[in-house]
Amino acid sequence: MVCDLAVVTYLWSPDSPAKFGKHRYGPDDVRVLQRMVARNLSVPHDFVVVTDWPEAFADDSAIRAVPIDWTKHIPGTCYVRLMTFSPQAELLLGKRVLQIDLDSVIVGSLDHLVARDEDLVLWRNPRRWCLTDPDAGYALKLALFNGSILLHRSGTWTQMWSDFDPSCPLARDDQWWFSFRAGPGCPYWDGSHGVYRLAHVDRPWSGVGVALPENACFVTFPGDTAKPWQPETIDAYPWIAEHRR
């Protein structure tokens, strides 16, 4: 039986050109994320991995594996995650979906994030919204929203799926597609809700550093550097080892 709420992550075999650098995500990354969610989400939920490796989770009662629908896939991108907006999402995933990237660390309760009642909640891209003018100059080169975490009511926003043509993409990646279709008025999370990224080394104001803010519940690690499984990153930010287990 599918729960009303599903916490969903994606894991698929790398293809070329690869977007994700040297690290090959695997089942252990999924299991670490599931354990972090279990400790920090009291709301009843399924934990779902959408994957082309379902056999890796056959004996794991805490994780439900769902086969990927490759319809929107473009090699070297994350467009496959548009499956979250498929008309079949309620049947396959759940009535509501909290989608989380594997390169994230959960450091506090997620209950208030899933308590939102809007059909779609996105995370405002801190690289853009930390700028003095997020609507001019360099800011226009940055997506409005980051796709590392989102909340979606299945059966709504199906145009995210149906209107995307992988043979002629109109956006450089899925978060640009979210931003284009949802627009700046979309309900969102930001740092006031405890949702952060690791700060860029040249922009310490863009996220968290050695000390976590008191309200922090979710930290993600975009890009190809400073990932939460790298020994040098763990040494630099001791809170990672405390929470990513």
Protein described:
- This protein has about 240 residues and is α/β, with parallel strands linked by helices.
- It has one domain: Spore Coat Polysaccharide Biosynthesis Protein SpsA, Chain A (Alpha-Beta Complex).
- Helices cover about 20% and strands about 20% of the residues.
- Strands 3-2-1-4-7-6-8 form a seven-stranded mixed sheet, sandwiched between helices. Strands 5-10-9 form a three-stranded mixed sheet.
- The protein starts with a strand and ends with a helix.
Protein traits:
245 residues; alpha/beta; seven-stranded mixed sheet; globular
Question: Any chance you could write out the topology, listing elements then pairs?
Answer:
Elements: E1 5-11, H1 27-40, E2 46-51, E3 64-67, H2 89-92, E4 96-100, E5 104-106, H3 111-114, E6 120-124, H4 126-129, E7 145-153, H5 159-162, H6 174-182, E8 188-189, E9 195-197, E10 218-220, H7 231-236, H8 239-243
Short description:
By secondary structure, the protein is α/β, with parallel strands linked by helices. The protein has eight helices and ten strands.
